[in-house]
Amino acid sequence: MLVVIAGAGRVGLGLAEALIKEQKNDVVLMDMSSRAVKNAQAFDMMVLHGDVMDRKALIEAGIERADVFIAATDKDDRNVLACGLAKHLHELRGGQRENLLTLCRIRDETILDEQAHGGLKAWAEADRAIDPIDGAISRLSSGIRASSFAEVIPFDHEAYLVELEITEDCRLPLDTPLADVEQEAGSPVPLLIGLKRKGTRSTVPSGTTVLRPGDRIAVATTGLGSFDDLVHTFGHDVRAFPDQPKVVVVGGSRLGLRIAAHWLDEGAHVMIVEGDLQTANAISGHRIGGHPELEVIHGDHVSRETMEEVGMGGMDVAIGALDDDHANIAAMLFAMDLGVPNTGLILNDNDLVHVVQRMGISFSVDITRVAVDELLTHVHRKLAGHYAVLSTIPNVVGVTHEVTKAAKFCGRRIREGGFPDWMRIAFIQRSDSHGRWSSHDPHPDETLIEHDRLIIFTSPDHVADVEKKFRV
After folding, report:
1. Which terminus of the chain has a lower count of CB atoms within 10 Å, N or C?
2. What is the DSSP letter of 100?
3. Percent of the chain whose pLDDT exceeds 70
């Protein structure tokens, strides 16, 4: 598969790196910045210095042979227009217009509204516009509930992948092969699908794998209610989280309103603190403006007197939604100083994610990684669901495939399916007769039926092998 990516920023480079690791893709990356081009040349791909709106540059990138075109520059309008130009040149030079998948990274809500009403594909020929904010908010909400996790990836229908470190206080037998741990522990062992040990390559654990303090692990689990058990099992302190939390959102920006809407839907009481009077007043006209559990405060979020007066210290959660990463970090440190026990951030700079954890901020989300995951989901058009790149356990990825009637393992138990050791089934997602989906643990005696969706974890270089197993 040939993938042309316009934009060598964080998203573009993240996409290119993930696709190259799959070892079945040819990637061409282009950017107008000489510096960005130079930085990208360390990767095993073709890198071009050129404008995404330049016909010659797109032709040099091989647009007529491309299977996927991704516009990931920092300009929404150029991303949308580039998709149309790419389709046009692909067809003009002998390709079939419908065979080129065009994706673009978008921030502007009006463009996303066009997509929702079906207009974007019609007039711009962008097959899909990707806005990762909702995905980032979902990860942040889940992660705040268990701050011992380094990462939480929701897979819909109450399925979650969590990443955390094993401590000396782990309740499971350490230095014991996983095949023997359950018998020795006397209880079921959480489903591990990834492990990273310092100085070694990430792996998908097998029965011979042993666990040690300091290991980074990825665990498949269902339901938010399972989080405390996992935190306890692997040696971390469990911190109670209220069923109906009080949440303060610092900043009434577009991001702040979407964060507030999410928590209101979760049954929380939400306070938005906004320093600009006009912006604060405008929230009343938003769809959540009249919600009975929403309170809007006009005031300076770093004024101790004002924040003590509105009771910020009595909130359960504080989330930064300002326009600048550093301003958000400062706001969360101030909230912590006032006594807010759970704090969260959505960061644009992925280098800051681990820094803020060391500061004591409960949980942060790298929006670049979410954007990469969502774009990769659409690149892999044949997937039935998400594609996910693990953050602290590199070289392990998650993919979702549907069980078809023609598959050799359809109608068989998992233990009879002939699934190799280099892949691990994390969840079975199944629809009932009313179309309601639910997630199930993959017990070896579970029978796989047609239309089941399997969430599978493997190394990137085995993604093509997994696809072959499901291709009939």
Report:
1. C
2. S
3. 100
> For residue range 175-202, what is the model confidence (pLDDT) as tens digits?
899 889 877 777 778 999 999 999 899 9
Name the 3-class secondary structure at 432: coil
Q: Which amino acid is at 309?
A: E
Core vs surface per residue 200-232: b (16+ CB within 10 A) or e: eebbbbeeebbbeeebbbbbbbbebebbbebbe
Separation between Cα atoms, residue 319 and residue 249, nearest integer Å: 5
User: For residue 5, which of 104, 106, 130, 107 has the smallest C-alpha distance?
Assistant: 104
Phi then psi for 57, rounded to 5 degrees?
-65, -40
Residue 361: Cβ-neighbour burial (10 angstroms; 0-12, 13-18, 19+): buried
For 374-470, CATH gives 3.30.70.1450
Q: State the Cα–Cα distance between residues 72 and 237, nearest whole angstrom.
A: 40
- CATH superfamily, domain at 246-340: NAD(P)-binding Rossmann-like Domain (3.40.50.720)
Closest CA to 196 of 226, 233, 159, 166: 166
Q: Where would I find the beta strands (DSSP E) of 24-75? A: 26-31, 46-49, 68-71
Query: 136-233 maps to which CATH number?
Result: 3.30.70.1450
CATH of 2-131, one of 3.40.50.720, 3.40.390.30, 3.40.50.2300, 1.10.1380.10: 3.40.50.720
Query: What CA–CA distance (Å, rounded) separates 141 from 208?
Result: 35
CA 319, 324, 325, 331 torsion-angle sign: negative
Neighbours of 120 (CB within 10 A): 22
Distance between CA 239 and CA 228 in Å, rounded? 8
In this structure, how many other beta carbons lie within 10 angstroms of the beta carbon of residue 114?
20
Per CATH, 136-233 and 246-340 having the same topology is answered no
> Can you give the pTM of this predicted structure?
0.86
What burial letters (b/e) apply to 300-312, b meaning 16+ CB within 10 Å? ebbeeebbeebeb
Q: Which of 379, 382, 467, 400 is nearest to 127 (CA)?
A: 379
pLDDT in tens, 386-419: 888 888 888 899 999 999 998 889 999 999 999 9
